[in-house]
Amino acid sequence: MIQSPQGRENELGHLAHPEIxxxxxxxxxSQMNVVHVLYDLATYPDYVEPLxxxxxxxxxxxxxxxxxxxxKLRKLDSFIKESQRxxxxxxxxxxxxxxxxxxxxxxxxxxxxxxxAMAVSAIQNDPDVTPSPEVFDGLRYYRIRQQPGEGxxxxxxxxxxxxxxxxxxxxxxxxxxxxxLEIKTILVKLIMDYDFKFLDELGRPANLKAHEFxxxxxxxxxxVEKRDVNETFQF
Length: 235
Hints:
By secondary structure, this protein is of the alpha+beta class. It has 6 helices and 8 strands.
């Protein structure tokens, strides 16, 4: 950012703008993802035990907890990915403005200056892409990854042509791997050291929507209790 700007791009205001955009894109989205997962864990508490067992078994096999341990949490990764599928940060992505006229294969004409976007939520929730998309299945992608040749695919941080929350191709989000690690670090600690449930019987509060953006409801309330010190997870 310091070396590439030219002309007015070197002015402080222009340098500050991309910093703000990157902060907006990287900080609140990870925080929202964690809240969505916590809401979903409280909604579907039967997942807490198998996720906790996976974490403990990984620690036992690794002889402690290491950075590489996070990549072995396939069930947790699947749960996070399913939570994002049901609660994406935005209904649209890949916003672009056409720099020149272009005609698609189906003869649709996009004129210069046209604002286009991809309907990422509709694409990933198409029944041809995700069977029974109306059902929350926290181990959906875990089971898919058990199939031959699929083990390295369908991860929270990997991109696919029909899973575009992080973009795809050369313009995919470069920070998605750090975001995945950051989210898992928080969730491992919460899952292993705390019990939590919704304060009342109303369950998961409805998401808030602003234009195409989706936010976890900040008015949701969770009862959180720290487990006995002998039961907490030692990193």
